[in-house]
Write a structure and sequence with these properties.
About 85% of the residues lie in helices and about 0% in strands. It is mainly α. The chain is flat. About 25% of the residues are buried. The protein has 11 helices and no strands.
Length: about 280
Amino acid sequence: MRDRQGCPLVVSSSFSRPRHLAGILAKAVPAVMSVGLLLVAWELYATYSGIKPTTLPAPSRVFEQAMLNRDALVDNAIPTIRATLIGFAFSLSAAFALSMLVDFFQPLRRALFPVFIISQTLPLVAIAPLVVLWFGFGLAPKIMLVALVTFFPMLVALVEGYEATEPEIGQMLRAMGAGRWRVFVLARLPSALPYFFAGLRISITYAVVGAIFAEYAGAAKGLGIYMLNAKNNFRPDLVLAAVGVSAALTLILFGLTVLLQRLAMPWERAAGKQAAAEAARR
């Protein structure tokens, strides 16, 4: 956009912000509608099918009981959140460290990857009680189980991302005198970021589930033990209320990973805006 003298005009970012928010809301509409339709269908079926509330409570009853028992739900959600975040931090650190080792020492990939694959074939339902038996009812087994179920997607994503680096970039950096570590930091690590965030989004959806399974196996507090107690008391409404809390936690963590990707990779946003501008011109 230019003025009468042909000079470019600067458009205030305040005009672009509403458009950006409108775009985000437009993208969210299909998901909100699908979830809303599912809840409406569930409500109608639970209300008019004659099924007992002790078998399938309506969403309205689940929400009502969640509000009535919100203090207990919050009290039990805090240990689950703590185990999830600490376990995921350990998982992220282990995945990054192991991916670097595998990238710098290629024979380690052939030696370690079969072990990592085997670790992912272990059924969580079977291994969780054993981990609790070996390490007690404290925080340690929960951290270990969360790390166990979340580190592999990030590890594979990082290793594949390093391999996707264009060889010409590495050759150019080496020709300029860069060592292997500098090539890794300047070329291989930035190339792996899109792969890493894809693995991060996959892993974060398993983190809360891993913590809940660990609590099922043995805990004093947590959403897992809350669900177990509610099930034993024949309260499916409270079980579903706890499931709703765990789903909300997973969605929040997933949203945070998307936000982190936007902050860590601003060039992707710039490329998207440029592509949108070119499409608008056409």
